[in-house]
Amino acid sequence: MLDADLQIEKKGSQNLALKVLSICQCLIKLERPGQVAQIFNNLLSKVYKFYSPLTDQLNKATTGAVRHGGCLGLGLAALGTRSVKIYEHLRECLYSKNEAVSGEEDGIAMRLVLAGSMNQTAFDEMRSYILVTQHDKIQRGLRTGIAMLAYGMLEKSEPWIEILECFHSESIMSQTAVCMIAMAYAGSGNAEIKRFATIAIGFVLSGNPELCLSHSGMLSKHINGHIRYGAAIALGIACAGSGYKESVSRLEPLLQAKENFVRQGALIALSFVLIQHTESTCSNVVEFRKTITKTITEKSEDTITKFGAIVAQGILDADTNLTDEKEEFEHQQKELEAIRNPIISKLYQSAGGAGMPGGIMQMCTSI
C-alpha cells in the first residue's frame, strides 16, 4: 500500500510532491503510521496527477507487495481519466505476473482508470481473463473492475449484464453481473433497482425464514414504498408455505399502506406464507380469506390492490385438492385410532399387562 499512498502530493508542484514522498518514507521507516495517515488525509483532496514516477516504480518492482501498491497508486492517480495507455500498462502487468497479491489491486486499478467508460475492449479482455485465472484474488479484483466500466451508465449497461448472466455455471460471473447492476445504477435512486434489490434478499435467504425476517423486517417499515413492497415479497418468498406467525404479523400492517402497490405486495406475500394452510394449521388463514374477499368486492378499492387480492386468492387455493386429501386422511386416521385404541387396551389387559408387543404374543401363544 506504500506506493498507493505515495502518489498523493501537494497540488501544483511535482518537486514538492517528491519531498512529501521522502518524508513519508522516513516516517514509515520510523514506524510512525499515525503521522503518515495524518499527512495523507491532509493531502487526499489535493491530487496532482503525474504518472512517470509511478510507472517507473511499477516496472522496477521486484516483489508482489510493491507491485500491489504501485498498481493501486497508479490507478488512484489516473482516477477517471479513461487513459487507454495506463490501462494497457496495468493489463500487461497483470498478464505478465499473474500474482494473487498484486493481481487484485491491478483489477481495481483498471476499474479506477476506466470507470464509466463502457470500453468494449477492456470488457472483453477482463471477462476472458477472469475465467482463465485460478487466483481468487485476481477474480475479485476483475469482478469490481468489470463492474466499474459501467459506472453510472444506467440502461446502457444492460447488454453487458445479459452477457455476464449467460455464464450460469460460473459464480464469479453472476457476482460480476450483480456488481455491474449496482454500479450502473449507483446514485440514480432508481425505484425498480431498489425494489428488486430488496426482493433478492428473499431468494438469497429462502432457506432461513428467521434470518430473512431479521434482515428485511426493518425494511418493511421503510419510508420508501418500493422498498416496503420489496421487503413484503422477500418475506413471502423466504417464508413460503411456512405459516410463520412472525412474518404474518410483519406483513399484516402493510395491508393498510397508503400506496396501492404496497397493499398489492402484502396480499401476494401473505398468500405465499399461508399457502396450503387451513384454520387447523394456522389461525390467520380465515381472517386473511375475509380480507381477500372484502378487497375484491369493495367498490371503492383500487384496481391495483384488487388485482393483488385476486392473485393472492389463486395462490392461497393452489393445490387445494391435496390439502383436502390431507385433511380427509387425517380425519380417517383419527377415526381408526378411536376404534383401534380400545381394542389394543383390551388385549393388553387380557394379557395381564405383560407389555406390548410381548404381552400380545404371550396371549396369542396361550390361546
Automatic annotation (TrEMBL):
It holds the Pfam family PC_rep. The keyword Repeat applies. SUPFAM superfamilies: ARM repeat, Heat shock protein 70kD (HSP70), C-terminal subdomain. The keyword Protein biosynthesis does not apply. One of its GO terms (biological process) is proteasome-mediated ubiquitin-dependent protein catabolic process. It comes from Meloidogyne floridensis. One of its GO terms (cellular component) is proteasome storage granule. InterPro entries: ARM-like, ARM-type_fold, HSP70_C_sf, Proteasome/cyclosome_rpt. PANTHER family: 26S PROTEASOME NON-ATPASE REGULATORY SUBUNIT, 26S PROTEASOME NON-ATPASE REGULATORY SUBUNIT 1. This is 26S proteasome non-ATPase regulatory subunit 1. Keywords: Proteasome, Repeat.
